[in-house]
Design the sequence.
């Protein structure tokens, strides 16, 4: 006996958008990681080594691996949640910038400092540079997502914007 399950079109495209988001998250993560590797807002310490501190390390390679894992998750989430609205470049870039800013508030201002025993929601040279890095992530991830969507030529639901 075969059972057929009907999936609404908006639900059916979530895996496709999540996979596009994974690629977009890695592109955004590489751009952001470069920013964090050259930015030294605190005592000549690269921000990428500060990310390694989440696991008690100061190794830049560990920082990159942690950072790219987070970027991959953030990209998948972007695609799954916002993919239907980010298939054209202008809305994708705007959504990406807002999404990057949200991750800055959640990650750089709250989660990371809380895990490292530092004050949360504090504005300083590190968080200022981190805002720039998160905006780079959002810009690149959003633009990459839209480029993938347009390059595939797939019509996965209504285009917005």
Sequence:
């Amino acid at each position: 006996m075969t059972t057929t399950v009907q999936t609404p079109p908006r639900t059916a495209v979530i895996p496709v958008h999540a996979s596009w988001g994974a690629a977009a998250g890695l592109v955004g993560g590489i751009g952001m990681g470069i920013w964090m590797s050259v930015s030294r807002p605190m005592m000549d310490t690269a921000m990428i080594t500060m990310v390694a501190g989440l696991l008690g390390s100061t190794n830049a390679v560990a920082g990159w691996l942690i950072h790219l894992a987070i970027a991959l998750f953030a990209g998948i989430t972007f695609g799954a949640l916002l993919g239907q609205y980010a298939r054209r470049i202008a809305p994708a870039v705007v959504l990406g910038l807002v999404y990057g800013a949200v991750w800055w508030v959640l990650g750089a201002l709250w989660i990371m400092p809380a895990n490292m025993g530092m004050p949360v929601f504090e504005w300083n040279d590190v968080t200022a540079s981190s805002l720039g890095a998160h905006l780079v992530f959002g810009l690149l991830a959003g633009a990459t997502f839209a480029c993938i969507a347009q390059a595939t030529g797939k019509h996965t639901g209504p285009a917005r914007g």
Summary: The chain has six helices and no strands. The mean pLDDT is 89. The helical segments are 9-12, 14-38, 47-52, 60-82, 89-115, 125-152.
